[in-house]
Design brief:
The complex is a heterodimer of chains A (112) and B (390). Chain A has 112 residues and is mostly helical. Helix content of chain A is 61%, strand content 0%. Chain A is built from four helices and no strands. In chain A, helix 2 runs antiparallel to helix 4. Chain A is elongated, with a radius of gyration of 22 Å. Chain A starts with a helix and ends in a 19-residue tail after the last helix. Chain B has two domains: 138 residues, no CATH class; 207 residues, Rossmann fold (3-Layer(aba) Sandwich), CATH 3.40.50.150. By secondary structure, chain B is α/β, with parallel strands linked by helices. In chain B, helix 2 packs antiparallel against helix 4 and helix 6 crosses helix 11. Helices cover 43% and strands 13% of the residues of chain B. The chains are: A mainly alpha (112), B alpha/beta (390). Chain B: It comes from Nocardioides bigeumensis. Chain B: This is Methyltransferase domain-containing protein. Chain B: InterPro entries: Methyltransf_25 (IPR041698), SAM-dependent_MTases_sf (IPR029063).
């Protein structure tokens, strides 16, 4: 697969409304920031749980090794993965040129 | 705190951004993440963009944008400006998502609030909302802040992280309230136009215990929330649904000061021009009109390049028309005198660098003011079905 100079130019075209003219780059960046949001949320949740478990002397060595076989945890992961995937990949599903809100300016007017 | 400031006791503590976000652990964590990104955008990334744009600062904003369109930092800056706002509102843990799930409960809270001191809330739900208001999703808030009860609560929560770099978010409104107090008779009538959920109305009420304070807005949902907040805090504020350009509920020469914060950049020029005339009608001779909004832009062409970009990317199209408007001429045409536009220091030392570009992203806060001559009377007359003095 080759990339022509024209395609490169299009990929780096500038859109004053979003900064990124290429819809694929726009959506991939959306995926990355959504993923990072999931990660941060997960970090906060883990930190919260860790503090509680340590306070209660519940957290002991070996718990993590056995958790994968827990059916309740498996059911949770199945449901959570669906919502997680939707949140993460929704930016890819947006229609080209779609705006998520009613916009007050035409594309031409949006230029300074 | 300024040496002559006597209203310290009137200042209500404003929670830190992260502390103010309601919701469960995941929502709080996600909103903290978004605010963290916005804080980086407002400081680190902004500084890179500003330093790059400074090389073409002699060019007009359109040319600066053209030159900056090849900058990776600027593209990321522009992209984040759009998407951080969308992330704040939408997605699994967005504020609109969070509150929409509780819409019925929140509608109940507003309904209960309306039963308490009902004479202090005058919603006029049969009156159509203006086209510009319903046709634009300001701040990228789909459906605006008037569609559902939950929209009002989402707007209230979102407003707390509008300026994440500010050291005290509530300071802006308290400082504006101090200014209103300084230009208004202690027992006067103050009308807070575009009051929203009361973010400025409440500090005005606290700063002026002897005054009659009335909040006006277009959204019945937001007014319901403002009323609920006032009732819960024991604040004597009357809230009225009305249009700034056609104040059917206010009599001629009945108001001492009309104040409005962050309102006039959300209306088209023709509506604003008509609003000036309507303000003139409602004000008493010698009365004051003062807006806190975006007009005097520090940083020259680069500053204008940045705020015009914000207008596009935060879906606030009328920032452009306000910046292009000759405010002095329009105020004079409406009959006002002593017209002045002065930069407003929203927190200590915010204007320390004068007309230069600020070191972090900030709104170009400006006081835009004028006086109705003491000897003039209004050219038109109107009797209102609601008297603010009643």
């Amino acid at each position: 697969m080759t990339t022509s100079a024209t395609n490169l130019t299009e990929a780096y075209a500038y859109d004053p409304a979003t900064g990124l003219g290429d819809p694929v780059a726009d959506r991939l960046l959306g995926v990355i920031t959504a993923l990072a949001g999931e990660l941060f949320t997960c970090k906060a949740e883990l930190e919260h749980l860790r503090r509680r478990l340590v306070d209660a002397d519940v957290l002991v060595d070996g718990d993590d090794d056995r958790a994968g076989a827990d059916p309740e945890l498996a059911a949770w992961m199945k449901a959570e993965a669906s919502a997680y995937s939707k949140h993460l990949l929704d930016p890819l599903a947006a229609q080209p040129g779609e705006r998520l809100f009613r916009f007050g300016l035409s594309p031409e007017d949006a230029r300074l | 705190m300024r040496a002559d400031d006597t209203s310290e006791a009137a200042r209500a503590p404003e929670p830190a951004v992260e502390d103010a976000i309601v919701g469960d652990l995941r929502t709080a964590a996600y909103q903290a993440y978004v605010v963290g990104l916005k804080r980086y955008w407002s400081t680190e990334l902004y500084a890179v963009v500003a330093s790059q744009a400074a090389h073409v600062a002699e060019q007009p904003p359109r040319e600066i944008e053209q030159a900056m369109s090849t900058s990776h930092a600027y593209r990321a800056f522009a992209w984040l400006e759009v998407h951080l706002q969308q992330m704040k509102y939408y997605g699994r843990w967005g504020l609109v998502t969070l509150f929409a799930e509780a819409d019925d409960q929140l509608a109940g809270e507003l309904a209960e609030g309306q039963k308490r001191e009902p004479d202090k809330l005058a919603n006029d739900v049969e009156r159509p909302l203006p086209d510009y208001y319903v046709d634009t999703d300001f701040h990228q808030h789909r459906g605006g802040i008037w569609s559902d009860p939950s929209d009002a609560f989402a707007y209230e929560a979102a407003a707390r992280s509008t300026t994440p770099v500010a050291s005290d978010h509530g300071d802006l409104h308290s400082r504006f309230a101090d200014h209103v107090r300084a230009i208004t008779p202690a027992d006067g009538v103050v009308l807070d136009m575009g009051c929203g959920f009361g973010k400025t109305t409440e500090p005005i009420r606290r700063a002026m215990p002897g005054a009659t304070v009335v909040g006006v807005d277009l959204s019945p949902q937001v007014l319901g929330l403002a009323h609920l907040r006032a009732v819960q805090q024991g604040l004597d504020i009357r809230y009225v649904q009305d249009r700034q350009e056609d104040l059917v509920h206010f009599e001629d020469e009945s108001v001492d000061t009309i104040a409005a914060s962050m309102l006039i950049h959300e209306v088209p020029t023709d509506v604003l021009v008509q609003s000036l005339r309507e303000a003139y009608r409602v004000l008493k001779p010698g009365g004051r009109l003062v807006y806190l909004d975006f007009y005097e832009v520090p940083g020259g062409n680069v500053g204008r390049f940045l705020i015009l970009g914000h207008s596009t990317r935060n879906n606030e199209p009328f920032i452009r028309s306000l910046l292009a408007m000759d405010f002095h001429a329009e105020m004079a045409a409406a009959g006002f005198t002593d017209v002045a536009t002065t930069s407003f220091e929203e927190e200590p030392d915010a204007l320390a660098r004068g007309t230069e570009l600020p070191e972090f992203w900030r709104f170009p806060w400006t006081l835009l003011a004028g006086t109705k001559p003491a000897t003039e009377s209004a050219g038109t007359t109107r009797t209102a079905d609601i008297s603010v003095a009643s």
